Structures are given as C-alpha cells and as structure tokens.
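To: structure subgroup
Subject: Chain for Friday's discussion

All,

I'm putting the inputs and outputs inline so they're searchable in the archive.
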Amino acid sequence: PTDIPVGTRVSAQGKMQSDGTLLVLRLDIHLTPVTVRGTVTAMSDGQLSLKAGNNATHVRMDSHTVVMQGSHPLTVSDIVVGDDISVHGDSLGAWLAASKIMVHRKLTALDGTVGELTADGFTLVTSDGGHRVIVTSTTVFTGGTTSSFVPGTALHVTGYRRGDGVILATRIKPGKKTRGSGSGTYLVLTTVQTVPDANASQGSARRAISRGRL
C-alpha cells in the first residue's frame, strides 16, 4: 500500500469494523495506461529518467518489464544514457511503471582502421575520429574474426549506434586497402599529355594517357 501514490483510484473489498474502519481483504488499483517517448538522461537500479520535450518522466522497471529493439529482445542493463526509447506502462503518480520498453537505434555503417583492441571489441579510427565498436556472439564476420584484427586493419563495420555513441556491430568485413598495404584497391594517377596529331587538322590534338600505381 505504501507504493500507491495519492490520487490513485482504487476499489476496496472487506469487512466493516465496529470503529467504522474497513478491514481490507482485497484492493484493486485502477491504473492509467501511458506511452511516453524520449531520451534517457539517467539510469539506476530498476529506474531511469526520461526527457520528453520539456517534460521529465521517472520510470520504474522490474523483472517483468519487456525490453525490445525491433524484434530483438534486450535486457534493462542494455539501455544506456542517451538512448531514444518508448515506454509503455501505467501511471503511478509521478512515476511510470514500465511493462514494455522499445529501444530505437539507427543502423549505421563506417569505414576505418582498427586503432586499439578492447575486451569486447575494438576502436575504429575513421575520418571523424575514433568509435568504440562492441562485438558479440551474433556479429557476422566476412573474411576473418576478431583474432585476426590488428591495429591498422582496414574494416567496414555495420551496426546499431547506442545513445552513448558506441556501435553494436552486426556485420564486419574487410575494408578498402590503403596506401602501402599491398594488393587490393589502389589509387590510380592519370597524367594527360597533349601531342600533335599529324593526320588531324591544325589545332587538333590527340591525348596520350599514362597511368601509375601507388
């Protein structure tokens, strides 16, 4: 009963006592279903704070709360600060008791090189800086595994970006080779020279093209 906030509608059944009080044998709480979408601003045991527009919502979760990302089941511990989520549940005064949470993450693709190996993946260095990549048992590899990754390895990583910027890799494959990496994709330099054409009219020319490889 201490968890029931003031103002909540209830139905009580019981026995009336001689002093006019009711000995409650059954208490039904009438909750209002609510759905709120926003950004996670704080996490703690069984609770999170959600910012939706200018409003803040405090959410309670328990072992019965279902967490999903699309059709993939997650756990409460998979949610991080910065995640975009939708919470379905019942209003309990200033709290929202969550029955289901949907996590919305964008699928992204990055090209870069391995910078540093970590316990759960690696750092991918791209043109805009380093990105932490987490590899799981469901990550699909093409042309190798994490055991073959060394700093400087070129990779193409596809995965879901968490609210904290970490990439949860769904697929990893070799990336384009860079200068000095041996066989693979090369940058081809083309030099265009203009030389006279004896068989053409005055002022016309033909072009001779020479190619080089880095």
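Points worth raising on Friday:
The longest strand covers residues 32-44.
The radius of gyration is 30 Å.

D.
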